[in-house]
Amino acid sequence: MGAAHRPAATGRPTGGIRLLSRRDRLTALRAALLLSGDSHPRLAARGTADATARIRELAPRPWRTRPLPSLDAGPAQAAELLTLARQRSTGLTESVVQLLHDVLRPALDSR
């Protein structure tokens, strides 16, 4: 890859973000929520977009022939994800935060 095609170095951990996003869905969602609170506006916007997409992907859809596997979040993990989402409510819409709450409700109810 030539220098003209290489992204400019920003001093931000974009490689780590890509690696975390390839992990299991729980880790990827947590990473996106954490990133959405970054002080760098472009990284925060990317984190918000990733978190929103991942949360919407978790929602049941009537046209899916088979449901996605559950997020497998324990009660503590579910509470942490929901807390992160609520802290990022300026970037995430209320409907997305509510959707995450609905998805995590079984884990939250088992506390």
User: How far is the N terminus from the C terminus?
Assistant: 50 Å
What is the molecular shape?
Answer: globular
Structural class of the helices, strands and pairings?
mainly alpha
In N-to-C order, the SSE pattern is HHHHH
Q: Radius of gyration over alpha carbons?
A: 15 Å
Average pLDDT works out at 79
* Low-pLDDT windows of residues: 1-9
Largest sheet: none
Helix content: 55-70%
Please work out how many helical segments DSSP would assign: 5
Short description:
The chain has 111 residues and is mainly α. 59% of the residues lie in helices and 0% in strands.
Descriptive report:
This protein starts with 13 loop residues before the first helix and ends with a helix. Helix 2 runs antiparallel to helix 3 and helix 4 packs antiparallel against helix 5. The N terminus is likely disordered. The longest helix is centred in the middle third of the chain and has 18 residues. It is mainly α and 111 residues long. It contains five helices and no strands. It is globular, with a radius of gyration of 15 Å.
Keywords:
111 residues, mainly alpha, 5 helices, disordered N terminus
Layout of secondary structure:
Elements: H1 14-21, H2 25-35, H3 41-58, H4 75-87, H5 94-109
Helix pairs in contact: 2-3, 3-5, 4-5
